Automatic annotation (TrEMBL):
The lineage of its organism: Bacteria, Bacillati, Actinomycetota, Actinomycetes, Bifidobacteriales. GO terms for biological process: tRNA methylation. Residues 97-265 form the tRNA (adenine(58)-N(1))-methyltransferase catalytic subunit TRM61 C-terminal domain. Belongs to the class I-like SAM-binding methyltransferase superfamily. TRM61 family. One of its GO terms (molecular function) is tRNA (adenine(58)-N1)-methyltransferase activity. Keywords: Methyltransferase, S-adenosyl-L-methionine, Transferase, tRNA processing. Its EC number is 2.1.1.220. It catalyses: adenosine(58) in tRNA + S-adenosyl-L-methionine = N(1)-methyladenosine(58) in tRNA + S-adenosyl-L-homocysteine + H(+). Pfam families: GCD14, TrmI-like_N. SUPFAM superfamilies: S-adenosyl-L-methionine-dependent methyltransferases. It is an enzyme of class 2 (transferase). This is tRNA (adenine(58)-N(1))-methyltransferase TrmI. CDD domains: AdoMet_MTases. S-adenosyl-L-methionine binds at E157, D182, D206.
Length: 351
């Protein structure tokens, strides 16, 4: 963690009075282009976080209407955009800010999902974590931060170009490639086959078909270790859950998604934003059983059928299977009471 004066080479976050954020790397003699002029990096280097800097003239024409300048005479901000004078607060970016602003080779996981992976996966300092699917490095940077230098992260990325993006983003964040990170390229099964048995405390899978990787995942995870899979669609989620159950090597999987909504607060005018971050993905969490032991399963009702496709049934079979397919959730006794109440109410109408 960096403290003290801001140094050349660091990533810095500039925020204006409207809340617009710009994250850039500051270099000696450099500048950051904004809508309101240039932020000179030499005005930032050597100063502390929390200062305010002012933009200077940008090398572009003014925003004032060239044909009818009188129309913009009462709009001083039009000229301010061209001549500078716009203020920005200077801070080091939070990890969440860094993740959202970093260059991407693949779609990143949102901070709301990353936070849940860390919490539900119980990923802490000193843990040995195996990650599959580096993407742009958003999850990798957070895992590296969570396990710390006393732990270790092994990341397997199929595509070498994505691995380069992830490594560069992590290197920029830490000021050098973390020594506790082992980044490998190749397919998961091949690379994992060379890893020590029951070595990892936690596994994070962010890939298209995690259900096909459970054999090697169980081999390298320690008994009681936590497996977390990030999956974007319902069909993938269903296949993953059923594969975990069928293997017998993992506890009953838990599935959840996280929705995020921010709020506007101005005195007594308090309301939620019109836009929110809705569905981004599902998290499937399970724990590894010890060798020789099968996961305990909840017993379903014998008559319950959750597999048969209703479109493949005849009309008679559909009628017979209504309760099994859970197409109704009301008892016959309750239904009779509802009908009696409705008959009484209809009979009371003045018709």
């Amino acid at each position: 963690m960096r403290r003290g004066p801001l140094q050349a080479g660091e990533k810095v976050q500039f925020t204006d009075r409207k809340g617009k954020k710009i994250t850039d790397q500051i270099v000696a003699g450099g500048s950051t282009q904004t809508e309101h002029g240039l932020i000179l990096h030499d005005d930032v280097i050597g100063r502390t976080e929390g200062v305010v800097v002012t933009t200077v003239t940008a090398k572009r024409e003014a925003q004032v209407n060239a044909l009818h300048p009188e129309r913009d005479a009462g709009k001083p901000w039009k000229a301010a955009r061209a001549i500078g004078g716009w203020q920005y607060a200077v801070m080091r970016p939070r990890l969440a800010d860094y993740v959202l602003s970093m260059p991407r080779g693949a779609q990143i996981m949102y901070p709301k999902d990353i936070a849940q992976v860390i919490q539900l996966g119980d990923i802490r300092s000193g843990h040995r974590v195996l990650e599959s699917g580096a993407g742009s490095g958003a999850m990798s940077v957070n895992l590296l931060d969570a396990v710390g230098e006393t732990g270790g992260l092994t990341t397997i990325e199929l595509r070498p170009d994505f691995a380069r993006v992830a490594e560069a983003n992590a290197t920029l964040y830490y000021g050098g490639k973390p020594a506790w990170w082992d980044l490998r390229t190749g397919d998961f099964d091949t690379v994992a086959a060379g890893l020590p048995e029951h070595h990892y405390d936690r596994i994070m899978l962010d890939m298209l078909d995690p259900w096909n990787r459970l054999e090697q995942a169980w081999r390298v995870i320690a008994p009681g270790g936590v497996l977390v899979a990030y999956i974007t669609t319902t069909t993938q989620m269903s296949r993953m859950v059923e594969a975990l159950r069928e293997s017998g090597r993992w506890t009953e999987p838990a599935v959840q998604e996280t929705l995020e909504r921010s709020w506007k607060v101005a005195g007594l005018a308090v309301r939620p934003d019109h836009q929110m971050i809705g569905h981004t993905g599902f998290l499937v969490v399970a724990r590894a059983m010890a060798d020789g032991f099968t996961a305990l399963k909840k017993r379903d009702r014998p008559a319950k059928d959750t597999v048969t496709d209703v479109d493949e049934m005849t009309a008679e079979e559909r009628e017979a299977q209504l309760e099994d397919l859970e197409l109704r959730d009301i008892s016959d006794r309750k239904l009779r009471k509802v009908l009696r109440d409705l008959d009484r109410q209809v009979g009371s109408l003045d018709v």
